[in-house]
Design a protein that fits this description.
It is a single chain. Strands 1-2 form a two-stranded antiparallel sheet. The chain has a two-stranded antiparallel ribbon with strand order 3-4. The protein is built from 11 helices and 4 strands. The longest helix has 28 residues. The protein has 243 residues and is mainly α. Pfam families: RDD (PF06271).
Length: 243
Protein backbone atom coordinates (compact mmCIF):
# COMPACT_ATOMS: atom_id res chain seq x y z
CA UNK A 1 0.00 0.00 0.00
CA UNK A 2 1.34 3.49 -0.88
CA UNK A 3 2.12 5.83 1.96
CA UNK A 4 1.91 9.56 2.63
CA UNK A 5 5.01 10.66 4.55
CA UNK A 6 5.08 13.97 6.39
CA UNK A 7 7.75 15.77 8.36
CA UNK A 8 6.45 17.90 11.25
CA UNK A 9 7.92 21.12 12.58
CA UNK A 10 9.52 19.02 15.33
CA UNK A 11 11.29 16.95 12.62
CA UNK A 12 9.08 13.96 13.38
CA UNK A 13 8.43 11.76 10.36
CA UNK A 14 5.03 10.07 10.31
CA UNK A 15 3.68 7.75 7.64
CA UNK A 16 0.04 7.28 6.72
CA UNK A 17 -1.31 4.51 4.53
CA UNK A 18 -3.06 6.00 1.52
CA UNK A 19 -6.60 4.77 0.98
CA UNK A 20 -6.77 2.20 -1.78
CA UNK A 21 -8.66 2.94 -4.98
CA UNK A 22 -11.04 0.09 -4.15
CA UNK A 23 -11.94 1.45 -0.72
CA UNK A 24 -12.54 4.91 -2.18
CA UNK A 25 -14.80 3.50 -4.89
CA UNK A 26 -16.81 1.48 -2.36
CA UNK A 27 -17.14 4.55 -0.13
CA UNK A 28 -18.38 6.54 -3.14
CA UNK A 29 -20.88 3.78 -3.99
CA UNK A 30 -22.23 3.84 -0.43
CA UNK A 31 -22.58 7.62 -0.51
CA UNK A 32 -24.22 7.50 -3.95
CA UNK A 33 -26.69 4.91 -2.65
CA UNK A 34 -27.55 7.23 0.26
CA UNK A 35 -28.11 10.14 -2.13
CA UNK A 36 -30.37 8.05 -4.37
CA UNK A 37 -32.37 6.84 -1.36
CA UNK A 38 -32.82 10.44 -0.26
CA UNK A 39 -34.15 11.43 -3.69
CA UNK A 40 -36.65 8.56 -3.59
CA UNK A 41 -37.66 9.56 -0.07
CA UNK A 42 -38.36 13.12 -1.25
CA UNK A 43 -40.47 11.85 -4.16
CA UNK A 44 -42.36 9.50 -1.83
CA UNK A 45 -43.00 12.30 0.66
CA UNK A 46 -44.32 14.63 -2.03
CA UNK A 47 -46.61 11.90 -3.32
CA UNK A 48 -47.80 10.93 0.18
CA UNK A 49 -48.60 14.53 1.04
CA UNK A 50 -50.24 14.99 -2.34
CA UNK A 51 -48.30 18.15 -2.94
CA UNK A 52 -49.24 19.50 -6.34
CA UNK A 53 -49.40 22.92 -7.86
CA UNK A 54 -51.03 24.49 -10.89
CA UNK A 55 -47.77 26.37 -11.30
CA UNK A 56 -45.16 23.84 -12.54
CA UNK A 57 -42.31 26.23 -11.75
CA UNK A 58 -43.43 26.41 -8.12
CA UNK A 59 -43.73 22.62 -7.96
CA UNK A 60 -40.26 22.05 -9.39
CA UNK A 61 -38.95 24.74 -7.06
CA UNK A 62 -40.30 22.74 -4.09
CA UNK A 63 -38.62 19.59 -5.42
CA UNK A 64 -35.31 21.37 -5.89
CA UNK A 65 -35.50 22.85 -2.41
CA UNK A 66 -36.10 19.44 -0.85
CA UNK A 67 -33.35 17.69 -2.80
CA UNK A 68 -30.75 20.47 -2.48
CA UNK A 69 -29.07 18.89 0.62
CA UNK A 70 -28.30 15.78 -1.45
CA UNK A 71 -26.47 17.95 -4.00
CA UNK A 72 -24.20 19.30 -1.25
CA UNK A 73 -24.04 16.01 0.66
CA UNK A 74 -20.28 15.39 0.28
CA UNK A 75 -19.32 18.97 1.15
CA UNK A 76 -21.62 19.05 4.19
CA UNK A 77 -20.57 15.63 5.48
CA UNK A 78 -16.82 16.14 5.08
CA UNK A 79 -17.00 19.55 6.74
CA UNK A 80 -19.15 18.28 9.62
CA UNK A 81 -17.29 15.00 10.20
CA UNK A 82 -13.71 16.16 9.71
CA UNK A 83 -13.03 14.73 6.27
CA UNK A 84 -15.44 11.81 6.26
CA UNK A 85 -18.77 11.03 4.65
CA UNK A 86 -20.87 8.10 5.82
CA UNK A 87 -19.26 5.95 3.13
CA UNK A 88 -15.78 7.01 4.20
CA UNK A 89 -16.60 6.29 7.85
CA UNK A 90 -17.74 2.77 6.95
CA UNK A 91 -14.60 2.17 4.88
CA UNK A 92 -12.38 3.83 7.53
CA UNK A 93 -10.82 6.38 5.21
CA UNK A 94 -10.48 10.13 5.63
CA UNK A 95 -9.61 13.31 3.72
CA UNK A 96 -6.58 15.15 5.18
CA UNK A 97 -4.15 17.85 4.15
CA UNK A 98 -0.88 16.70 2.62
CA UNK A 99 0.80 17.38 5.98
CA UNK A 100 -1.58 14.95 7.68
CA UNK A 101 -3.61 17.58 9.53
CA UNK A 102 -7.33 18.26 9.23
CA UNK A 103 -8.42 19.93 6.01
CA UNK A 104 -10.39 23.18 6.13
CA UNK A 105 -13.69 24.17 4.53
CA UNK A 106 -12.11 25.72 1.45
CA UNK A 107 -10.21 22.51 0.72
CA UNK A 108 -13.39 20.46 1.07
CA UNK A 109 -15.07 23.01 -1.22
CA UNK A 110 -12.32 22.59 -3.85
CA UNK A 111 -12.74 18.80 -3.77
CA UNK A 112 -16.53 19.07 -4.04
CA UNK A 113 -16.47 21.65 -6.85
CA UNK A 114 -14.03 19.71 -9.02
CA UNK A 115 -15.86 16.43 -8.41
CA UNK A 116 -18.33 17.77 -10.99
CA UNK A 117 -15.52 17.51 -13.56
CA UNK A 118 -13.40 14.52 -12.52
CA UNK A 119 -16.25 12.31 -11.25
CA UNK A 120 -19.70 13.25 -12.52
CA UNK A 121 -18.95 14.63 -16.01
CA UNK A 122 -16.51 11.83 -16.88
CA UNK A 123 -18.15 8.92 -15.04
CA UNK A 124 -15.18 8.86 -12.69
CA UNK A 125 -12.67 8.28 -15.48
CA UNK A 126 -10.50 11.31 -14.78
CA UNK A 127 -10.63 10.72 -11.02
CA UNK A 128 -9.54 7.08 -11.31
CA UNK A 129 -6.74 7.91 -13.74
CA UNK A 130 -5.48 10.73 -11.55
CA UNK A 131 -5.59 8.62 -8.37
CA UNK A 132 -3.62 5.81 -10.01
CA UNK A 133 -0.98 8.08 -11.56
CA UNK A 134 -0.45 10.68 -8.83
CA UNK A 135 2.16 10.23 -6.12
CA UNK A 136 -0.25 10.77 -3.23
CA UNK A 137 -3.30 9.07 -4.73
CA UNK A 138 -4.98 12.39 -5.55
CA UNK A 139 -7.83 13.06 -7.92
CA UNK A 140 -8.04 16.52 -9.54
CA UNK A 141 -10.06 17.87 -6.62
CA UNK A 142 -7.39 16.67 -4.18
CA UNK A 143 -4.61 18.25 -6.21
CA UNK A 144 -6.44 21.59 -6.26
CA UNK A 145 -7.24 21.41 -2.55
CA UNK A 146 -3.81 20.01 -1.57
CA UNK A 147 -5.45 17.04 0.13
CA UNK A 148 -5.25 13.28 0.01
CA UNK A 149 -7.30 10.38 1.35
CA UNK A 150 -5.72 8.13 3.97
CA UNK A 151 -6.70 4.81 5.50
CA UNK A 152 -7.47 4.73 9.22
CA UNK A 153 -7.12 0.95 9.42
CA UNK A 154 -4.10 -0.12 11.48
CA UNK A 155 -1.80 -2.36 9.48
CA UNK A 156 -0.64 -4.17 12.61
CA UNK A 157 -1.94 -4.89 16.07
CA UNK A 158 -0.06 -2.84 18.63
CA UNK A 159 0.80 -5.91 20.69
CA UNK A 160 2.34 -7.54 17.62
CA UNK A 161 4.30 -4.40 16.83
CA UNK A 162 5.79 -4.27 20.31
CA UNK A 163 6.44 -7.87 21.19
CA UNK A 164 6.73 -9.95 18.03
CA UNK A 165 10.51 -9.38 17.88
CA UNK A 166 11.17 -9.40 21.62
CA UNK A 167 13.05 -12.66 21.95
CA UNK A 168 15.08 -14.18 24.78
CA UNK A 169 18.30 -12.44 23.73
CA UNK A 170 16.74 -9.19 22.61
CA UNK A 171 19.48 -6.50 22.57
CA UNK A 172 18.69 -3.55 24.81
CA UNK A 173 19.56 -0.37 22.92
CA UNK A 174 18.49 2.03 25.66
CA UNK A 175 19.57 0.85 29.11
CA UNK A 176 18.20 4.16 30.40
CA UNK A 177 14.80 2.45 30.46
CA UNK A 178 15.77 1.41 33.98
CA UNK A 179 14.60 4.89 34.97
CA UNK A 180 11.05 3.98 33.90
CA UNK A 181 8.77 2.36 36.44
CA UNK A 182 6.09 -0.19 35.58
CA UNK A 183 3.56 2.61 35.95
CA UNK A 184 5.52 4.72 33.46
CA UNK A 185 5.68 1.81 31.01
CA UNK A 186 1.92 1.27 31.19
CA UNK A 187 1.31 4.98 30.70
CA UNK A 188 3.65 5.01 27.68
CA UNK A 189 1.80 2.09 26.13
CA UNK A 190 -1.59 3.77 26.69
CA UNK A 191 -0.43 7.08 25.20
CA UNK A 192 1.20 5.36 22.25
CA UNK A 193 -1.97 3.32 21.67
CA UNK A 194 -3.94 6.57 21.47
CA UNK A 195 -1.47 8.10 19.00
CA UNK A 196 -1.42 4.82 17.04
CA UNK A 197 -5.21 4.65 16.73
CA UNK A 198 -5.71 8.34 15.93
CA UNK A 199 -2.61 8.71 13.73
CA UNK A 200 -1.95 11.78 15.89
CA UNK A 201 1.43 13.41 15.24
CA UNK A 202 1.12 15.76 18.21
CA UNK A 203 0.63 12.98 20.76
CA UNK A 204 3.58 10.99 19.41
CA UNK A 205 5.81 14.07 19.40
CA UNK A 206 4.92 14.89 23.01
CA UNK A 207 5.55 11.27 24.05
CA UNK A 208 9.00 11.23 22.43
CA UNK A 209 9.95 14.49 24.13
CA UNK A 210 8.73 13.19 27.50
CA UNK A 211 10.75 9.97 27.15
CA UNK A 212 13.86 11.94 26.23
CA UNK A 213 13.43 14.05 29.37
CA UNK A 214 12.82 11.15 31.78
CA UNK A 215 15.50 8.87 30.35
CA UNK A 216 17.95 11.72 29.65
CA UNK A 217 18.61 10.40 26.18
CA UNK A 218 18.14 11.71 22.63
CA UNK A 219 16.62 9.36 20.11
CA UNK A 220 19.04 8.60 17.24
CA UNK A 221 18.50 10.58 14.04
CA UNK A 222 18.43 7.41 11.96
CA UNK A 223 15.55 6.06 14.06
CA UNK A 224 12.06 7.41 13.53
CA UNK A 225 10.17 8.63 16.61
CA UNK A 226 7.68 5.81 16.13
CA UNK A 227 10.47 3.20 16.15
CA UNK A 228 12.12 4.94 19.10
CA UNK A 229 9.01 4.59 21.27
CA UNK A 230 8.57 0.95 20.22
CA UNK A 231 12.22 0.23 21.02
CA UNK A 232 11.90 1.80 24.46
CA UNK A 233 8.86 -0.36 25.23
CA UNK A 234 10.65 -3.49 24.01
CA UNK A 235 13.76 -2.64 26.02
CA UNK A 236 11.71 -2.09 29.17
CA UNK A 237 9.88 -5.37 28.67
CA UNK A 238 13.13 -7.23 28.04
CA UNK A 239 14.90 -5.70 31.04
CA UNK A 240 12.15 -6.35 33.58
CA UNK A 241 10.34 -9.44 32.22
CA UNK A 242 12.08 -11.78 34.68
CA UNK A 243 11.84 -9.47 37.67
Amino acid sequence: MNKLEINTAQNVKIQYNLASLGSRMIAFAIDYFIIVCYFFFCMFLLDALNITSSDPYLFYGIIMGMTLPAFFYTLIAETAFGGQTIGKKIMKIKVVKLDGSRADFYQYLSRWTLSIVDIWMTMGGIAITSIVLSKHGQRIGDIAGETSVISLKPSLKLSDTIYEETFENHPILFPQVIKLSDKDANAIKDVYQTAFDRRDVGILTALVQRLETIMEVKHPEQMTPNDFVLQVMKDHYSMFKDK
